[in-house]
Specification:
Elements lengths: L2 H15 L5 E18 L5 E9 L2 E7 L11 E11 L4 E8 L2
Antiparallel strand pairs: 1-2, 1-4, 2-3, 4-5
């Protein structure tokens, strides 16, 4: 997800919850895969996510397009996206795989 896509997503989320334009930022990082979650249905829809330890906390890195195939022990690169809504009253964080 590039910076433009993040901006569009932020504005869409803000409009859905009736908030002013959110403040967002992102950073990239790498970490070692600790656990892999996968699921699929009979129609071929797939889900992939990875658990990594980032800054001392286990977090779930989502692969929204379900195109990766990493295994436990692999190093992955991901984006950490932060967004503040309602003048900082609501703060969210999301993680998404890169590449």
């Amino acid at each position: 997800m590039n910076r433009f896509q993040i901006m569009i997503l932020s504005v869409m989320v803000a409009s859905l919850v009736g908030c002013s334009t959110p403040v967002s930022s992102y950073t990239t990082a790498t970490a070692t895969v600790l656990k892999v979650y996968t699921a699929s249905d009979v129609a071929g829809h797939a889900f992939i996510a990875y658990v990594v330890n980032h800054n001392g906390v286990d977090v779930v890195i989502s692969d929204t397009l379900a195109r990766s195939s990493h295994k436990v022990g692999d190093t992955i690169q991901f984006m950490e996206m932060k967004m503040q809504l309602s003048g900082g009253q609501v703060k969210t964080i999301a993680y998404s795989i890169l590449g």
